[in-house]
């Protein structure tokens, strides 16, 4: 309903949100899960991180939004940023408690409220706009935050002191973890900009619509990664540290499962494309296949990087991911310089180096395996 131009505006702004939220939740959420969240200094630092994270996410979203959105839409996008940080903070408490079904109930409520606002907007006289989508997201995130505050035990979000604690208390762990986790969404955001520079809004919309067909598979992979992180962290605390073989098996299972979902998306690409675009613009099937490959590679490396996180090797993962991103973006830039119509190759370029990264991670993890 937004058309190619509106969808491109939404995709660029939403990509910025995803990048900022990924940095935040990796700093805040993984610290909450791996470190002792009831340690007073850690707890105070997490409170400060939440406030700082909300402010920085809003600023980053507005900084990109001013180039593609109206002033009202920029304001709505910043509200989304703040409410999203609040909800993500609550979500990660559920994750730290390994209460995934309770988390699913919370997420479902947020989804229902978001969709309800979209339906009301679609039925209104003005119809759906980019601003309405941001308003829907803000409403859903706010509703999910409110119900989480009610459903979580008070000791999980109560802070007795607001002074004390420093970012250095968690930075040695969370800093590299956040940087490492932010590589992939940053690569996606920068690739959108390269595609937009080469082919304009229509190209951005076409590549994003192709990626949207694989979004369910990517969501499964991300959700599994969160579950694996909590499982590995709990095993460490229980004196049963996971080994590289455990991560390799998880990678194989996750890649196969995501591969089946990706195959389904490819088989149904025709009707799904019409559903996503409303026949308003074309989606290149080569891009759909590229995103399927990207998702499988992403899934295969996720448990390995998660195990590295629990062993506090985030600096190594960051270096490997940074090299992978640099090669992918350089390849994409070179290709579109040679042929501007080759923007569909973005997911292939972003997949370059993924298998090599997985092999290098596995080799490093094997060397640091604990004794049986």
From TrEMBL:
Protein known as: O-antigen/teichoic acid export membrane protein
High-level lineage: Bacteria, Bacillati, Actinomycetota, Actinomycetes, Mycobacteriales
Superkingdom: Bacteria
Residues that span the membrane, as ranges: 7-29, 49-82, 103-124, 130-150, 186-207, 213-235, 247-268, 288-308, 320-338, 344-365
Keywords associated with the record: Membrane, Transmembrane, Transmembrane helix
Organism: Rhodococcoides corynebacterioides
Signal peptide as annotated in the record: none
